Amino acid sequence: MTLLSSGTEGRQLIDGPAGELEVSLQAGSERGPFSGRGYYAVVAHPHPLYGGTMDNKVVTTVARLYRELGIAVGRFNFRGVGASEGRHDNADGEVLDLRAAANYLQTACAGSRLLIAGYSFGSAVAAAASLSEPLEHLLLIAPPIERYPFAPDGGFPCPLLVVLGSE
Length: 167
Fold this sequence. Notes:
alpha/beta; 25% strand; 7 strands
């Protein structure tokens, strides 16, 4: 499978751990500063039980920024959201969903340097996935630190950027 051009989006269903997962893949801009360096990013969305999807404005904005940097990017709907099969699993199964999306994107774009970003609930999933996936970078946007564990004993295994609002 090849990625589409950076200006187009390819939505498809892939095999996931709880059935099919709906994913959106886009190539990075050929003019971006990271183009051709093997980077690929996966962006995880907010809580599915509260309306979170891969089409969330924050998620699509982060994906657009990765593309502009020349980084191939994938967004996906967690199990039970949109066309994705399965049922919500309180972040445990959703970590497996993120891994499936990352593995698919890696194959699709021949990437070798994974970046993961997550917004709200998606940041909890991204943080958990970072502990077992070799990452170049982890971006957590508005992590729900009072709801999910975020502080591994040994710290995170990669560079980390946390974005928090005050209002």
